[in-house]
Amino acid sequence: MKRHETTSKHVKNMKSLKKQPEMVQFVPRAEEFVNKLKELEIKMCMLIVEHDVSITVADHFSELLRTIHPTVSQVTCDRTKCTSIIRNVIGEYSFQELVCEMKENIFSLLLDESTDVSEHKSLAIAVRFVREGKDCLNVCDEFLGLLPVEDATSESLFNITVKFFNDNDIPYKKNMIALATDNANVMAGIKSSVYTRFKKEIPNLYFLTCKCHSLALCANHAFKRGMPTEIGDILIKIYYYFKHSAKRQHTLTVIQEILGLKLNKILKASSTRWLSYRNVVKQYLDQLPALRTFFQREIDDINKGKFKTSSATNARKEQLLYISSILNSPTFQLYLEFLDYILPIVTNMNLEFQAEESKIYVLYDRMEAASRTILKNFLNNTYVNCNSMTVLLKNFKDPKNFRTDVYLGPRVAMTLEKERNNDKLKSQLKPFFNNCLTFYIELMEQIFQRFPFGSDDVDALRRLSFIDPKNISNTESLAPVAAYFSERLSIDVVDLENEFQYLKNCQEFDFNKSPTKFWFDVKKAERADKSPMFPNLYKLVAYIFTLPHSTATVERIFSVVSNNKTVKRNRLEEPTLCGILHGKGLLKRRKKNCYNFNAKPLLSLHKASMYKYVPSQRIPRKKKPKK
To answer: Quick one: which of 63, 68, 62 has its CA closest to 44?
Structure first.
């Protein structure tokens, strides 16, 4: 048989068989039935993608369908086929759709690196660009790729990203206008980083570090510098005291019911999750009476001899005495009330900049408003109102400009009023006020370092308020904006200014619309010869909408990875993860669910070649040398 297979006669006959038409072509209904089965299989895989279900479920899901009705008895979509469809049908279709858009439009690149549950490093790549909707412009953040990383140096990360662009023929030097990363030196350093390497290839590249990361770091530094160490320490100790004991949690619940408090569990304070820190502080304030009662009861039980005397009991008693002394200290409640006042100013900003919609044009105004709010708590209000941010940046540490009474929030003021006759509290107020002042100063120091008011890049952001149509009438000229962006866009400054001045006087536009709807109308406006009425102005606006303000999208990618690649599913490979992430992106773009998704455009990829093996580019972990 093997010898016959190599003969010229057999080879010739096989070639003729390949040209022979399939029977399905002569039976239209059969072809339609096969396509229906393929659509069903794609939707089954979409269900797994949308809901983060384990792919092994496909083995029983197919069998289950066969028992329901004989019509679907031919469904064969076990986990091998399901994986192939997710990778090479759903994922490939979505990826190629994105690549086509990136070849034709300008885009911003968002990068971040992380380590998954199996200790493999990955570089997540997302892109931002502007799409046209039915009646508005859509600013879209899309997942592009998840690349394995062997060496997390700036050179390695840069080379991996560039190779990915070149392999997919993406003209990044032409279409990439901005880069957003976290604040790590390997990404954002001024000497040798991913940013500096891209800057050499794209001289007009706009770069912005993630403002969500920056604000979290500002709060973290201020907390470490201004707050006593026992404040953060006690929040962690209390959490772990309750974490592994159902009995203690039940006792606390009973005390909460007796005192008429909400039945809340103790939250964990994490220095890496500053959005949750305010919730932790607020809950400790609400549960402070219950916590004080609980720990005093624990101490009383030990003193009454309910536990055998041992080294463990003595250590536990020391821990309880320490926790109780902090909870009952005169200033502990004041510190929590101060944090409950100041942290929302930072966390609310953080939440706003996590939005996917474009926020770059309000970034300066929001940062200035938050900065002035914080400064007025410890600086003379008249001084803050009468000076620019550049002046305040230079002189905010000068004691001559300090208020005589530092404002620490309404709850602190109410507590001080109630305890005005408490001599023990009065003796500790001076260090308390000094620590809070240090917190304010360090917070502003960190904000000014990460958002330097007065620099060219930040000053350019100040000029972008015209993006909101309500501010157009108050904007005299676009010359300051053009001075910064004209070289990046290669637009004629005179034509741009003429278009803007004409737009200000147009009565056909509704200036009360949202920015995305208003500028969509501007783009669609035409002259009598059907040419665009505002080509240069729209080019500038589209560029600004494309600029990123955070890397929250990349963080969401890692959250999806964590939901799918768990401890039990730690062998899930990068190509499959990419297929899942691209599938979620496809559903989001279509605004559909797994059951109403139109799978017909994907049928051309649902064929035998979808089983091609895509080897994982995972970097094997280095084995430890034997001793």
So the answer is: 62
Residue 56: helix, strand or coil by DSSP? Answer: coil
Helices (H), 376-478: 381-386, 389-395, 410-418, 423-426, 429-450, 456-462
Predicted local distance difference test score (pLDDT) of residue 151:
85
Contact assessment for residue 534 and residue 523, using Cβ atoms and an 8 Å cutoff? yes
d(CA 350, CA 275): 8
Sheet containing strand 107-115, edge to edge, reads 137-148, 121-132, 107-115, 176-181, 206-209
Judge contact between 137 and 546, C-beta under 8 A: no
Asked whether the beta carbons of 564 and 580 are under 8 A apart, the reply is yes
Phi-psi region of 409 (alpha: psi -120 to 50; beta: other; left: phi over 0): left
- Coil, helix or strand for 129? strand
Q: Report the DSSP pairing between strands 107-115 and 121-132.
A: antiparallel
Give the C-alpha separation, 184 to 215, whole Å.
14
Report pLDDT digits (tens) over 1-54: 778 778 888 877 777 666 666 655 555 567 788 888 899 899 999 999 999 999
User: What is the amino acid identity at position 340?
Assistant: D
Low-confidence ranges of the chain (pLDDT < 70): 16-29, 71, 271-275, 308, 613-627
What is the C-alpha to C-alpha distance for residues 430 and 501, in angstroms, rounded to an integer? 57
**Confidence (pTM):** 0.82
Q: Which two three-digit tokens encode residue 265?
A: 């569990």
Cβ neighbours of residue 86 closer than 8 Å, sequence gap 6 or more: 45, 48, 49, 55, 576, 579, 580, 583
The answer to whether the CB of 23 falls within 8 A of the CB of 38 is: no
Question: Rounded CA gap, 564 and 98, in Å?
Answer: 23
DSSP state of 253: H
Which residues 6+ apart lie within 8 Å of 280 measured at CB? 235, 267, 268, 269
Number of Cβ atoms within 10 Å of the Cβ of 183: 15
DSSP 8-state code for residue 615: -
Share of the chain residues as helix, strand and coil, in percent rounded to the nearest 5: 65, 5, 30
| Pairing mode of beta strands 176-181, 107-115 | parallel
- The pLDDT assigned to 274 comes to 62
> Using CA atoms, how far apart are residues 468 and 472, in angstroms rounded to an integer?
7
- Calculate the alpha carbon distances from 168 to 99, 413, 416, 554 in Å: 7, 61, 65, 21
